[in-house]
Write the structure tokens for this entry.
Amino acid sequence: MERTCLDCGEPLVGRADKKFCDDQCRNNYNNRMNSDTTTQMRNINHILRKNRRILAGLIPEDKTTIHKDKLLAQGFNFTYFTHQYITQKGSIYHFVYEYGYLELDINFYMLVHRKNP
């Protein structure tokens, strides 16, 4: 049975475990296999960077209070955050890297900046 390149289908010569005829075919194949995942990750990372930039621009020092409409007006997406922190009292902070927010009241949020997360 003749072995063929997984990308271009050309016959393979060389090692028994060889899967591609050259680096270009290997790269083409792997890029094609990972393109959906890569696109999704790229889109999520873009949203996270934008959320972080918005929070960083709205926090003058370590913390502030802001209305939800101001966040939404700048394009903040509440669906995406990097992690949560739950206080002993049960308050849930959502963080985008070192910047976080806590829902205080209907439509008001406290924004915080943790310098040493």
Summary: The mean pLDDT is 92. Residues 44-113 form one domain.
